[in-house]
Design goal:
Blueprint (H helix, E strand, L loop, with lengths): L21 E4 L2 E4 L7 E6 L6 H19 L2 E7 L3 H15 L7 E3 L4 H5 L15 E5 L5 E6 L8 H14 L16 E2 L16 E2 L3
Parallel strand pairs: 3-4, 4-5
Antiparallel strand pairs: 1-2, 3-6, 6-7, 8-9
Length: 207
């Protein structure tokens, strides 16, 4: 069995502070901490001008107003250059009639990718990475997901995740499987024997 190198930095986990960075994007230079006070969906894509990534960007661009209603910013990243990003977004607009309204970060040195654990230390590119980090207004990672390069993410599930995280952020309610806004929520479990036989699965209307 191969042993884990104890000196290797561990991957980011739920509850970790999202590493800050400053980088060039398709909308000018930004720093992650300028988004404090808002939710952020920070996601990497393997490469510009690729089929699955293009489908994701078209879908995310169309859904951007729904993320905005949740006070949630979208922020994309790949190792491709800023010039490639600009050309790709222009092509998306020309071919699909969709303008991508969120910044796309260039990361040619892979510094941000390494900081977030998006890339293996031996990787020469980001062609196998499709990672998403859901960051709360305090800059803390509250959820994350990884997909292979040949499977696109569900934008509806990304939206549902943000809504569920926002609804459960105060700790007064949990969201059950397949929860959608307006559905019943779960109460945090009480001590056994104090709230009846169903103490571990009590719901309440969330209207």
């Amino acid at each position: 069995m191969e042993m884990i190198d104890a000196n290797m930095p561990r991957s980011l986990r739920i509850g970790d502070a999202a590493p800050n960075f400053t980088a060039r994007t398709t909308q000018g230079e930004i720093a992650l901490d300028q988004y404090r006070g808002r939710w952020v969906v920070f996601f990497s894509h393997p490469a510009d001008f690729t089929p699955v990534c293009t489908s994701e960007f078209v879908a995310l661009a169309k859904a951007a107003p729904r993320f905005g209603e949740l006070d949630c910013a979208l922020l994309g990243l790949s190792v491709d250059s800023l010039y490639s990003h600009v050309a790709w977004l222009r092509a998306i607009k020309d071919v699909f009639g969709v303008e991508v309204p969120f910044p796309v970060i260039e990361d040619p040195s892979m510094a941000v990718g390494y900081a977030y654990g998006m890339l293996d230390e031996q990787a020469g590119d980001a062609s196998t990475v499709r990672a998403t980090y859901f960051i709360d207004p305090e800059g803390i990672i509250r959820a994350l997901s990884w997909y292979p390069m040949n499977v696109g993410r569900s934008v509806d599930e990304m939206l549902r995740t943000v809504r569920a995280l926002r609804r459960s952020a105060d700790g007064e309610a949990y969201t059950p499987a397949d929860w959608q806004p307006g559905d019943d929520v779960l109460l945090p479990p009480a001590l056994p024997g104090h709230a009846g036989a169903d103490w571990f699965h009590q719901t309440k209307a969330d209207r």
